[in-house]
UniProtKB/TrEMBL annotation:
This is DUF1758 domain-containing protein. Residues 282-308 are annotated as: Disordered. Transmembrane segments: none annotated. It comes from the Eukaryota. InterPro entries: Peptidase_aspartic_dom_sf.
């Protein structure tokens, strides 16, 4: 049985033992991850990939992405978004993490066009902009490795063993569009390789150089809550009166007549012309009218007669 002590965004406890466990890389920044004291002899490697992202000038820039099917949305750091100089859209969202706690807020969204570092296939991704994502990955020192099962594979991140910042998270909104058929497993304490359109992704247990009893565990699991303003806006879009005109042809003709013939005189008064129908067909009314006149002309004596 192992004792586990978790703490969030706090200072790491002092080293009290020289047991062979993983040594995390030092950092002075706040991190959206959990840390705990665990007596482990190995660490977990998370899947990362080098992707080429199109900037505002149409050029492709290499960025490092964490592939995380447990995140409901894709995310990008504010610094990476500024470097790409992409236009953003207002979209207020709340990012929730472990224990349903608020991990970050996002007020912007960007549209990304990215591809792998070895092919020309383009993927469109909508990503929320946040200040920070997580600590450098991997967050431990990878010792010398000899993994025959990955020899000759086109890796998504050829330098997966070097601890570096993560520029974006590709979440479940695009995860299964990237995954291909194929998985290669290694022996004990060797990561598995998963085939994808970005290259082979490595993830799993890894033997590490252990010099401390502390360990930083990156738990990337978040989802975004759409803000109330966006939900209300969508409601009114559904309930709003359509802009399409239901006027008949005659109504449209009268409206056009009004726009063409309405003017304002020198006194400031509006002069409006009256429209008339062009249909002057009166029907066959001559004969009935003549008969009526004849009957009136033949009225009895004592009454006025009508001359023809």
């Amino acid at each position: 049985m192992q004792k586990i002590k978790l703490y969030l965004r706090g200072r790491r406890p002092p080293i009290t033992s020289d047991q062979n466990v993983v040594q995390p890389l030092a950092t002075s920044q706040e991190q959206f991850c959990l840390a705990g004291q665990m007596n482990y002899s190995n660490s977990i490697l998370l899947s990362t990939a080098i992707v080429r992202v199109k900037n505002s000038q149409g050029q492709y820039v290499n960025c490092r992405a964490l592939i995380d099917g447990g995140s409901q949305t894709s995310l990008i750091t504010e610094s990476c978004s500024k470097n790409l100089n992409l236009p953003f859209y207002e979209s207020e969202n709340t990012i929730l993490g472990l224990d349903n706690k608020v991990a970050a807020y996002s007020t912007k969204r960007v549209e990304l066009q990215l591809s792998s570092h070895f092919s020309q296939d383009i993927f469109a991704v909508n990503a929320l902009v946040v200040k920070e994502l997580t600590c450098n990955l991997p967050n431990f020192i990878v010792s010398k490795f000899d993994w025959p099962h990955i020899n000759g594979l086109q890796l998504a991140d050829p330098s997966f063993y070097i601890s570096r910042p993560v520029d974006m998270i590709l979440g479940a909104d695009v995860f299964f569009d990237l995954i291909l058929y194929g998985k290669i497993s290694g022996t004990k304490n060797q990561p598995s390789a998963l085939n994808s359109k970005l290259g082979w992704l490595l993830s799993g247990k890894v033997s590490t150089a252990c010099q401390s009893e502390k360990k930083v565990i990156s738990l990337i699991n978040c989802h975004a809550l759409l803000d109330l303003q966006n939900q209300i806006a969508k409601f009114w879009e559904v309930e709003s009166i359509p802009d399409a005109s239901n006027l008949s042809e005659e109504d449209q003709r009268i409206e056009k007549f009004y726009l063409d013939h309405t003017r304002r005189n020198r006194d400031g008064r509006y002069v409006v012309s009256l429209p008339f129908k062009n249909d002057n067909a009166l029907g066959d009314s001559k004969s009935p009218s003549q008969e009526t006149i004849l009957l009136v002309g033949e009225a009895p004596s004592g009454q006025s007669r009508v001359k023809r």
